[in-house]
Amino acid sequence: MELCRSLGLLTGSLALVTILIALSTDFWFVAMGPTFSSHSGLWPEKSNSEVPGYIRATQSLSILAALSALVSVIFLILSYVPSLSIRGYGPLSSSIMAFAAAIFAVVAMAVYTSERWNQPRHPQIQTFFSWSFYLGWVSAVLCLCTGSLSLHAHCSGPQSGYETL
């Protein structure tokens, strides 16, 4: 149980860091032409222009994923302090929040991927996804790992019953 809980805390912390880095950087999409290169992220610099709906959806779902991952990590940290958590239920709560974070992250990344993939191409401009985009996908995988490890820690830990009273 201790190993799974510790690994869950590690992967949860990494998931939180990667989703926060992905959210805060603007290297989601790169365009390179013969005489220029440009990159964009989830937070457009032009405040007077209309932001597409898929960007808003990706922003919102990514923020929800980051918040869920944060709560998952907090539950795992609290599970190490017996006086602050209900015996055995810290990893279960963490698992639920980690799986919720994974769902939010996967949907956010799928929305962004499908919309960017279907945009029209220009013959002289090469476009591709960049490292911030890939960090978003990595955070979704790490959230799934956190949920799995936390759930395993909960299932292999002591169960509540008359023996614990």
Automatic annotation (TrEMBL):
Keywords: Cell membrane, Cytolysis, Inflammatory response, Lysosome, Membrane, Transmembrane, Transmembrane helix. It holds the Pfam family PMP22_Claudin. The keyword Ribosomal protein does not apply. Its main location: membrane. Regulates cytotoxic granule exocytosis in effector lymphocytes, thus acting as a critical mediator of inflammation in a broad range of infectious and non-infectious diseases. Essential for cytotoxic degranulation of natural killer (NK) cells and CD8(+) T-cells and for the activation of CD4(+) T-cells following infection. Plays a critical role in CD8(+) T-cell and NK cell-mediated cytolysis of target cells and contributes to the cytolytic activity via the perforin/granzyme pathway by enhancing exocytosis of LAMP1-carrying lytic granules. The chain crosses the membrane at residues 7-31, 61-80, 92-111, 131-151. The keyword Cell membrane applies. InterPro entries: PMP-22/EMP/MP20-like, PMP22/EMP/MP20/Claudin. One of its GO terms (cellular component) is cytolytic granule membrane. It is a multi-pass membrane protein. Belongs to the PMP-22/EMP/MP20 family. It is found in: Cell membrane; Cytolytic granule membrane. The gene is NKG7. Gene3D superfamilies: 1.20.140.150. This is Protein NKG7. The lineage of its organism: Eukaryota, Metazoa, Chordata, Craniata, Vertebrata.
